[in-house]
Amino acid sequence: MGGWHLGPMLAYDLETDSPDPQDARIVTACVAEIDGTGQHAPGVQSWILKPTRPIPDGAAEIHGYTTEKATAEGRDPIECITEIAVQLGEATAAGVPIVAFNAVYDFTVLDREMRRNSIGVIGPQHPGQMRVIDPFVLDKALDKYRKGKRTLTATCEHYGVRLDGAHDASFDAVAAARVAWRIAQRHPQIARLDLDELHAYQVAAKVEQDASLAAYFRRMARQQRDVDEQIALNAKAEGCTGAWPLIPFAPERQESLA
Q1: What would the pLDDT profile of 82-129 be if each residue is shown by its tens digit?
Q2: Which of 18, 49, 123, 171 gets the most CB atoms within 10 Å of its CB?
Q3: Taking the CA of residue 13 as centre, how many other CA atoms within 13 Å lie in the half-sphere pointing to its CB?
Q4: Structural contact between residues 30 and 44, judged by C-beta atoms closer than 8 angstroms
């Protein structure tokens, strides 16, 4: 059986200081070259960025980088962000798909970081030119009714992929690519798609998934008596835009990038 999973892929992951992709700053990042077996990462490049603002304790507890640790070990953030974007841009130019788990978060974060630092137009600024493989979207599309969490850790467990260090960008990037490989092995109808078809499939799947999630949040909001809870749930519903692989930038948000 042939398929996109038997060719090269570039795995990509970020760890950040915020769950909001419009505001998050990158703390660590990784890109890893994956061969056609889904089991090897011949080339791995990692970055630690010197923080430009304090890293919240909650974020540090997840990925292990406090403000002090990242300051001591990190490099100039503009240099790092540029290097990350160049790596993704080179993969795109070579026709290599980029694998990212919950891609809309990681690509939106990088896009906003590039804009925030006036780095220019590279890779993620042109999502139409990129071919992205998102195991998070694929798994939800192909196994809609499976109960339980859909985190990377849970998804790795479901597909029998080893994850040695969750929330370490290097481990997470490689694990996501291996999950993508396992999905293709398990679902030949997905493996047979070319990269353009696969990309389009995920775009449509994300729209459907977000519409379903938005309906769920609105239904929960209607059941709430607490006004604040209603507002919060409706806000979550509004955030389910179906955008993929990144949230389009709204020019009116330019000032909020600072």
Answers
A1: 999 999 999 998 999 999 999 999 999 999 999 999 997 554 445 558
A2: 49
A3: 24
A4: yes
Instruction: List, in order, residues 6 or more apart from 218 with CB less than 8 Å away.
Output: 233, 234, 237
Any alpha helices (H) in the chain, and if so which ranges? 57-63, 67-73, 77-93, 103-116, 135-142, 152-159, 169-186, 188-191, 195-223, 227-239
d(CA 5, CA 178): 9
d(CA 88, CA 104): 15
| pLDDT recorded at residue 1 | 59
| Confidence class for position 152, pLDDT limits 50, 70, 90 | very high
Burial of 193 from C-beta contacts in 10 A (0-12 / 13-18 / 19+) = middle
Mean pLDDT, range 123-147, rounded to an integer? 85
Asked whether the predicted pLDDT for residue 38 surpasses 50, the reply is yes
Give whole-number Cα distances, 93 to 84, 90, 122, 130, 248, in Å. 14, 5, 11, 8, 21
Contacts of 104 (CB under 8 A, 6+ apart): 21, 134, 206, 243, 244, 245, 246, 247
Third-level CATH fold of 4-192? Nucleotidyltransferase; domain 5 (3.30.420)
- Domain map (residue ranges) of the chain: 4-192
pLDDT per residue as tens digits for the range 175-231: 999 999 999 999 999 999 999 999 999 999 999 999 999 999 999 999 999 999 999
Q: Helix or strand or coil: residue 178?
A: helix
Token pair belonging to 93: 């130019």
How many other CB atoms are found less than 10 A from the CB of residue 115? 16
Q: Is 242 left (phi over 0), alpha (psi -120 to 50) or beta?
A: left
